[in-house]
Amino acid sequence: MTCPRYETEAFVKYGSCYDMRCALAHPKSKGDQRKVFELVKAGGWLMWPIIACSIAATAIILERLWALRRKRVIPANLVAQIWKTHSRNKLTNAHLATLRAGSPLGRVLAAGLVNRMHSREVMKESIEEAGRQVVLELERFLNTLGTIASISPLLGLLGTVIGMIEVFSAIVGAGVGNPAQLAGGISQALITTAAGLSVAIPSLMFHRYLTGRVVMLTVGMEEEALKMVEVMQGERERDQEAAA
User: Fold this and answer.
1) Each residue of 103-157: pLDDT tens digit?
2) Spatial distance between the Cα atoms of 181 and 227, rounded to a whole number of angstroms
3) Rounded to an integer, what distance in angstroms lies between the CA atom of residue 186 and that of residue 105?
4) Dihedral, CA atoms, 21, 24, 27, 30, nearest 10 degrees?
5) Sequence spans of domains, the chain
6) Which of 30, 73, 80, 188 is 20–30 Å from 90 (CA)?
7) Are 64 and 141 in contact (CB under 8 A)?
8) CB atoms inside a 10 Å sphere around CB 88
């Protein structure tokens, strides 16, 4: 196959039309990869902890966004399904085991259903104990994400300090007449600061967002658990009779 339009230019610049087409199809891929590697190299060894923090933060954010979906934590109409099963006298230990393994809300409700033959206070205490454990599981890795958001700018600041130390060391050794000797320390100071902030800012944003989602899910589970206790203890029926 020939390239009539670009044949002469191709053989002059690339040696063949095929080489020219490859260069046109992937003009910047290798150059961009080289630039990224050069930035990491110019930032010094502190870039590697910052990169590790970014990978860990990304993994935590994706995992928590998946785990904290409302339909997974608080399935719809779960209390109504439990009441129907209970009213038919089919609420067995097997059903409780399935409920406990199905969702975080199911685990909380199952703790209360185990003590459904006892008083309201006993049911609420068992629900509160299970609820505390469930909330801890919902908050899993959020402390780590908050720590990453805190230490990433500090790592960048440390790189800035190290870079400025290298700048002043170069000035002491060779003076200010050769800017090339100062460029390494200055670039390290700027690159590590930018990298640390680029990791810290989204980590802090998602930490606040995920913490707020955990609070909302906790309130929703409390409402559903209270609804179940009132239904099991017959308080809602008595309220309706009093209103009638």
Assistant:
1) 999 999 998 888 888 778 888 889 999 999 999 999 999 999 999 999 999 999 9
2) 71
3) 54
4) -10
5) 44-244
6) 73
7) yes
8) 8
